[in-house]
Amino acid sequence: MDLPASFEHTMRQLLGADYEAFREALLGEPAVSIRVNRDKWSEGVPYERVPWAAEGYYLPERPAFTFDPLLHAGSYYVQEASSMFVEQAVRQHLGTARVALDLCAAPGGKSTLLRSLLPDECVLVSNEVMRPRAQVLAENITKWGHPRCMMTSNYPADFTPLGPLFDLILVDAPCSGEGMFRKDETAVAEWSPENVAVCWQRQRDILTDIWPTLRPGGLLIYSTCTFNTAEDEENVRWMMDELGATLLPIETAPSWGITPSLVPDVAHAYRFLPGRTRGEGFFLAALRKPADAPEHQGDAPKAKRGKKEKAKRPTMPVPAECKGWLTTGDYTFKVQDTDVVALPTDMEELHATLSERLYVLKAGITLAELKGRDALPAHELAMSTALRPDAFARCELSYADALRYLRREAIALPSDMPRGFVIVTYRNIPLGFVKNIGNRANNLYPQEWRIRSGHLPESEVRVLVNEN
User: Fold this and answer.
1) Which of 61, 258, 346, 414 has a 20 to 30 Å separation from 161 between CA atoms?
2) Helix, strand, coil distribution of the chain in percent, nearest 5
3) Is residue 105 part of a domain?
């Protein structure tokens, strides 16, 4: 990999004598790390821990993740170790929270991390403006399985009229991507000083738009995967000067190898540099909105542009059996078009508020699709941690059958399995639904999520292995 000359010149100025070690590391092999979903996987994990993340682990090598059924089941997420440092900012500075926003959320690594860290009663809103990326985000959050999530697809400026709604906002800002150079050759090819200038200005626009939606006393976490100071410390200084933000210290251990701020008057900023830290390039700062900051109260809702009012269909009743599929909790059940949805009742007001202003992709749990008189259980229900364990018959699959299921191929169930909808599991973790009709089982795995590769690994890919 040939690094851009202008990039090398800038980094030499920043790092001085340490540049050569940095460059050598940047051209080396990246570490491989995962984060475990403790709502689904309760057993021990024998790998080396990522020191700043309670459920982060380094793997000794990169396996063929595609062929591990537990990845598709949401038991873990493949996430870059440096990005998991968000956990320290949340644990040390958040406290209680009612509503949190991950503004630039795709593909979903930081959203699933936040969901595991937030108080259980907190609602997480994950936003991604690019619709194809928003679909990937929806898939990953669905697999993670927590019921108190909402997903939107909007520009930051669309949030501004909401006023101070969020206790926590994570802005993992679109950036020039210097920290991903050794993982993404496209990032190298697209880098230029001009693109850096475009990025830092766009980042300030994003921060300007979203700052009014942070409650007084609220926490904003700003991060990038780049190295230059224009997108990093200089933007933090700008937030302090222009927005009145207070920069917060984050306790770290010397053994973590985190590099402090490279700009003297920005005291508390945290850099992850290849060669010093075991992870990719990353920058993070945590900022507090003053408790006495004047509140922007939000604007009255306006009609959404470019959308025509649809003729309202007659409301269909919610099938009684759907209401018994979830564990105990207070849910409002609705039929939206042909989908049966369960929304935690205390999320209704927030859902209404966001729906007046934003394009809401999903909220709560999609339980089923109505087809005639039948309620076809949704894949999202199988992924949800709110699914009642005994709501459906279950059938444990072998590794080979689990891959067949995830390819959406036909699988055979034991003759003693009851007819109707059955959840198939692998290592006792739900993979999804089939409909057992006796002589065969109809595979109901989502067509768009199926494993497309016809390759069969030589041996079982098992990333999560028992500790003992």
Assistant:
1) 346
2) 30, 25, 45
3) yes
pLDDT of residue 156: 98
Asked whether the beta carbons of 133 and 151 are under 8 A apart, the reply is no
Does residue 233 lie within any of the structural domains? Answer: yes
Res 304 pLDDT > 60: no
Question: How far apart are alpha carbons 285 and 268 in whole angstroms?
Answer: 7
Torsion of CA 146, 148, 151, 156, to 10 degrees: -130
First to last CA, the chain: 41
Structure tokens at 27: 């051209």
Stretch 21-33: mean pLDDT: 92
Domain total in the chain: 3
Tell whether 94 and 112 lie within a shared domain. Answer: yes
Is 454 part of a structural domain of the chain? no
350 and 412 both lie in a single domain: no
Q: Residues 36, 143: one domain?
A: yes
Q: How is 241-287 classified by DSSP, letter by letter? A: HHH-PEEE-----GGG--EE-SSTT--S-EEE-BTTBSS--EEEEEE
Residue 450 has pLDDT above 90, yes or no: yes
Q: CA 171 to CA 225: how far, in whole Å? A: 12
- Residue 40 amino acid letter: K
- List strand residue ranges (DSSP E) for 289-381, in order: 331-336, 339-344, 360-363, 365-371, 374-377
Whether 133 and 21 map to the same domain: the answer is: yes
Residue-level pLDDT at 295? 67
**Annotated catalytic sites, by residue?**
225
Contacts of 282 (CB under 8 A, 6+ apart): 80, 82, 83, 85, 179, 223, 224, 225, 271, 272
Q: Inter-axis angle of helices 19-26 and 5-15, to 10 degrees?
A: 130
Residues in the chain: 468
As to burial, measured by CB atoms within 10 angstroms (0-12 exposed, 13-18 middle, 19+ buried), residue 112 is: buried
Q: Are residues 38 and 169 in the same domain?
A: yes
Q: Is residue 303 domain-resident?
A: no
Q: What is the pLDDT of residues 161-191, one digit of tens each?
A: 999 999 999 999 999 999 999 888 889 999 9
Q: Do 328 and 352 share a domain, yes or no?
A: yes
Tell me which DSSP letter residue 141 carries.
H
